[in-house]
Amino acid sequence: MPNDRIGPTQAAVLLLAFTLGSSVMFIPSPALAAAGTLTWLSVLVSGSVGLGLLGCVLYLHRRHRGRSLVAYYREVFGRWLAAPLLLWLMLVLVLMIANIVVGMGNFFTSTMMVDTPLFYLHAPVLLAAACTARAGIEVAARLFMLFLNVIVLMIIVILAVNLPNYQPQLLLPQYAPSTLPVLHGAYVLYGFPYSEVFVFGLLLEHVRLRQRVAVGRALVGALLSNIVLFAGIVLCAGMTFGPLSGQRSYVLYELARMIELTGTVERIESIAGIVLIAGSYIKATIAFIALHRCMARFFQLKQSRALILPLSLAILFISLTMFKSGTKAQEYWTSLWPMITSTCVLPLLAAAVLSAFRRPPARSG
Amino acid sequence: MLPHIVEIALPLGWLIGSARSTLRSAPASTRLLYALLLAAAAFFGLDYIVSGNWANLNDVMEWSLGWAARDVTRLLQSAADQ
């Protein structure tokens, strides 16, 4: 298959783009609502869990000598147990893509484009993501290098230009600090984006075999960068809005609205919209590539790229019928989604434990 | 309802129309999965037209994992409130 080999830097770009993606817009607010000004601690806790999970994914990749997740699931669990686990994994990926575009649609219909039907917001992003996924992971990785730079630059600009609005004293806790709110924030952040690192179990087969050691360092570096950025965003939101930061629906968007350099730069919230569209597109594409690889390996398909467009159409209609309201969606992402992703994380952990107790596979793979 | 029908009929019709050329040299398994995915799209599309909400995948997730998610969230929230 052409265009399906990537290097360590490209894998790191994909991971950072995937974990920043749309979550940078949605997740700081519910995490701040749960943990208040101590959310940066929640970021560290859930980020550590994400790093552990990434270590597990990398261990399986090395232990099974770069084979696909489908192949080593079949080897570790046996063909009959692996089948339902992989089918469930595919269903979760379908829901993940649908949720990404639903989040983007909800943001625009509740902020800037309130009269636009969701179909016309979901369809272009899904179509672009499907076409990029069809072009292959290497093309996607090269393209996302550019988008990732834009996203990170815009986040840094939004945080930096807000400097006059920061009041560090607002970070001081109002009540005696407690562990459970921090854990609640960590639970929210674990579901979206840190537990979603399991998706890279499906993508690491594309990394060039000779660069397996370097890819570990690059991916850990990418996830650490994500943790630093998330911690920065929640700290800046806490310093700007104080205890009320959790009541803002989209913290980064609200921070962009606060910008006011008199006469020159004012209300640059549309930048937050650009970040969200680019992030949703990137994340949906990466999830599409993972889903496509999983389907192709599971059903042993040839010419499987033809399936991406009908798949995207099915996901489009799933995304349009998923939620009755934005509130329901928010509740789903912060409460149910961490549980759903855990059902994919647990088999991965079990595969790592079982692999550790088995003889390594022959060098032929 | 008419705009919804157009929104579904256009992409679905295009994919059905182009299936022959897209799948010209594809094996039977790929063709079968292609047909199944189009059928799934039509099914969810029909739900979108009639707003029936009978094809909601979230209900499956809610039924299977909702109880655990609600209990964990409640535990973390209630202890925090105290």
From TrEMBL, chain A:
Chain segments annotated as coiled-coil in the UniProt record: none
UniProt KW keywords: Germination, Membrane, Transmembrane, Transmembrane helix, Transport
Pfam families: Spore_permease
Keyword Lipoprotein: no
Transmembrane segments annotated in the record for this chain: 43-60, 81-107, 119-137, 144-163, 183-204, 216-241, 271-294, 306-323, 335-357
GO cellular component: membrane
Subcellular location: Membrane
Major place of residence: membrane
Any GO BP annotation: spore germination
Superkingdom, natural source: Bacteria
Topology of this chain in the membrane: Multi-pass membrane protein
Similarity field: Belongs to the amino acid-polyamine-organocation (APC) superfamily. Spore germination protein (SGP) (TC 2.A.3.9) family.
Name the record gives this protein: Endospore germination permease
TrEMBL record, chain B:
UniProt keyword list: Membrane, Transmembrane, Transmembrane helix
Lineage top rank: taxon: Bacteria
Membrane-traversing stretches: 32-51
UniProt protein name: Uncharacterized protein
Native source organism of the sequence: Paenibacillus sabuli
